[in-house]
Amino acid sequence: MERLQIAVSHRPPLLLPSPNHLRRRQLSLPAPLPLPLQLASSSLSSRYRLSPATRRHTPPILASQTPSPDSDPEPEASSPPTGAKLVPLILSLAAGLAVRFLAPRPAEVSLQAWQLLSIFLSTIAGLVLGPLPVGAWAFLGLTAAVATRTLPFEAAFSAFTNEVIWLIVISFFFARGFVKTGLGDRIATYFIKWLGSSTLGLSYGLTISEACIAPAMPSTTARAGGVFLPIIKSLSLSAGSKPNDPSSRKLGSYLVMTQFQAASNSSALFLTAAAQNLLCLKLAEELGIIVANPWVAWFKAASLPAIVSLLATPYLLYKIFPPEIKDTPEAPALAAEKLKRMGPVTKNEWVMIGTMILAVSLWVFGDAIGVSSVVAAMLGLSILLLLGVLDWDDCLSEKSAWDTLSWFAVLVAMAGQLTNLGIVSWMSTSVAKMLESFSLSWPAAFVVLEASYFLIHYLFASQTGHVGALFSAFLAMHLAAGVPGVLSALALAFNTNLFGALTHYSSGQAAVYFGAGYLELPDIFKLGFLTALINALIWGVVGTFWWRFLGLY
Fold this sequence. Notes:
- By secondary structure, the chain is mainly alpha-helical.
- 67% of the residues lie in helices and 0% in strands.
- The radius of gyration is 23 Å and the shape is globular.
- The N terminus is likely disordered.
């Protein structure tokens, strides 16, 4: 039986390779990445700058941490290319130009709407193919819409005042607070102490701890890169399970794969567990689908199928992707020692706990007292700034938040104007007529549309990008096919979370877990599809009866 050791220090160090080592390994991938993965990877360096601040006297190390200015990083093998990538640029522009000048424009669609559709398609193609970083390409699309007078300046920039987008931005700062204070690490270590006597129990401990953190840490990617991957790497390395090595199957591969697959259900369980959830409901509102008391309504609808999937995933993978180490009897005692070395909960951790309780309470009950979700988030962030848990430099250095603000607002603005100009209604009507020609009932149409929405994600490297591009259109198709509105909006939103573990480029957290070096591509594609299929069956079967009980149809 292998002896599992947990690193113990005053603030528990993570037994990870050095930042330079991580940097070298990421730069020397064995084969060229698919274009969607390039998109995910290109934003990875900015997305995970959630490095925790020094706590007491021990400097923290994160799996995503970049070398400090004092370190002596190795020189890059070659300077990064500048400007747009020619082939992706040509293909992205060709997609829009073909629609604008070659495809016949339907009589019921105005020239302005058709032109905006062509710009939107070029923008989406660029997000998939990656001629430029996501934010830069979105800005070019926005510029094209304004320069060609397709949209006035005010309409093009209208989404920059969108409450949901600012709520997403603030969620990045909350996630940083969890990592900076070490609160997320402490919570996960408690679950290891309680459940970690076996490898399966260890997996359940990590899975349940993420579900507990999720509603107050609204970023699946931040939870992966800032909390759970460092813990998993520490446990795995201590057990002799090394990345990019045959020993990875001892423990690390199983823990990483399980956390990767289970995270999708944690994100689907709570409205505030992932950025894309908030956007889904905002886009649904623009089509007239209003979900009353959204936090509670979301949790009620997701609770039973999500909990069943969360409980099934570790056991399922334990059977079809088993670890070599089955028992870890010393883990609870070592986790207790680690907590002892961490010391008592610090003032900043208590502030973080209190602030998150306040924010989640306002998200749940805010409608009753007239406090919107974004105002609740603003109050929480203000408390963290006033009490010194975060400083403004933390917010400024969270580049992924500001990048998301820029490109997300562009997609939301374009999608909203496509709805206003009648493109979405034209598309939904056309699809509805096609479905009617097959004499499909609304339940059959629901299954076909949900499956199509899911499988299309193989072309996307971002869940939020997928939502911005296709959510409104697919929701309109559901409505045209006669599917009840609230059921349509919630099912598409849940689906958006479930396809986040489909491939190694399907989401930000996918890139994080794949980059750890414990998973092989064939395993990710095979188990990603298999687990997604089982999750779909669980959500479909359990959800059918549960949503009927709740009166959603």
